[in-house]
Amino acid sequence: MWPAGKNNRIRVFALAIVCCANLGSTFASVPEDTQTPSELLEQSRKLLEAGKLAEAELVLDRAEKLAPSDPVILTLDARVKGRLGEYASAVDLLRRVIQLTPRSAQAHVDLAIALADSGDLNGALAETATAISIAPALASAHLNRARILSDLKKDQDAGKEFALAAGLAPDNPDCFFYWAYAEQAQGNVTKETELLRRVTELQPGNIRAHIMLANSLTDQNRTAEAVAELRAALAIDPNSAQALYKLSRALHASDPAESARLRRQFDRLNAQNSVVDEAKTLANQAFHAFTVQDWRESIRLYSEAIDTCGDCEIESSLHRDLGLTLCRDGQIQRGAIELRKALALNPDDRDAAKALGMISIPNQTE
């Protein structure tokens, strides 16, 4: 719910949209479904278990066309679309669910989440009120109401709802994690620390909680405890730039040698970012070649960008855009291989999934 920065794509990867808009005229049509809605629902659940959101969405869309009044299919399709950033579509689907099941408190909570993701906080707040009126002991309704109140900067009211949610679901780390934000906004550092400690107890692998707790402890001059939390964060992710930088700063006086080592590691991470920038430059050039239909030059530049990138953060997008360009050049088999590489790296890539859904190529590797 309310992901920070997820699906924010740089301009160069607009290629995926351009390509997919033309795929229907390039490839053969997908044959009509022979599976039943229940079979498609089961297939989508297996894809979700495998982390393949984009492919699951395609299957659920097919199921929804065959069973447009099935609240289970509509709800799952909406949740997947929400996770993929298709908030307007998620809202529309969940409104249909509520028409079918108006007394379902969870349906109102689901709609509240989708509305909040789309930016309609007041509408979302109203849905949580409806959910609570139907099921006063539903923890998720209180938790989401608290988060919406916090987003509306009504932190005192949010704190009361967080307390209710935590009382109803004491083992849910989200109750305490987001409650900590509300206490932080009010300057209640001691309470914030208490809540974040609870999160790290319930969810030891939550790196954000460890870093937030370190910040809270640092504000209270509890440096040794902050250092311990930052070490815990680095144990989870040794390449966390934020944890490396903060720990280097925290150890500057007490352990200059380790502080310097951590700073060098931080600098190496920054150097890797320059590799990403170079790959993005090549990808921009590839995109320009694509726009003038110079497929071969575009393919060459995308391939070079992939070689430059290695396993950098945009690798999946580069494979996707190379795959789409290969398909536009008529190299369907090679294009399918690149699209599958993209999906293996990023199962949420809806454009790669849709492209593969429009072609019929046996699964291959290299």
Question: What do these coordinates show?
Answer:
With 366 residues, this protein is an all-alpha fold. It has helices at 15-26, 37-49, 53-66, 71-83, 87-100, 105-118, 121-134, 139-151, 155-168, 173-185, 189-202, 207-219, 223-236, 241-250, 256-291, 295-309, 315-328, 332-345, 350-357. α3 packs across α19, α8 packs parallel to α10 (173-185) and α16 (295-309) runs antiparallel to α17 (315-328). 43% of the residues are buried. Mean pLDDT is 88; it is low at 1-31.
Question: What structural keywords apply?
Answer:
366 residues, mainly alpha, 19 helices, 0% strand, flat, disordered N terminus
Compact overview of the structure:
It contains 19 helices and no strands. The protein has 366 residues and is mostly helical.
Write the layout of secondary structure elements.
Elements (H helix, E strand, L loop, with lengths): L14 H12 L10 H13 L3 H14 L4 H13 L3 H14 L4 H14 L2 H14 L4 H13 L3 H14 L4 H13 L3 H14 L4 H13 L3 H14 L4 H10 L5 H36 L3 H15 L5 H14 L3 H14 L4 H8 L9
Helix pairs in contact: 1-17, 1-19, 2-3, 3-4, 3-19, 4-5, 4-6, 5-6, 6-7, 6-8, 7-8, 8-9, 8-10, 9-10, 10-11, 11-12, 12-13, 13-14, 14-15, 15-16, 16-17, 17-18, 18-19
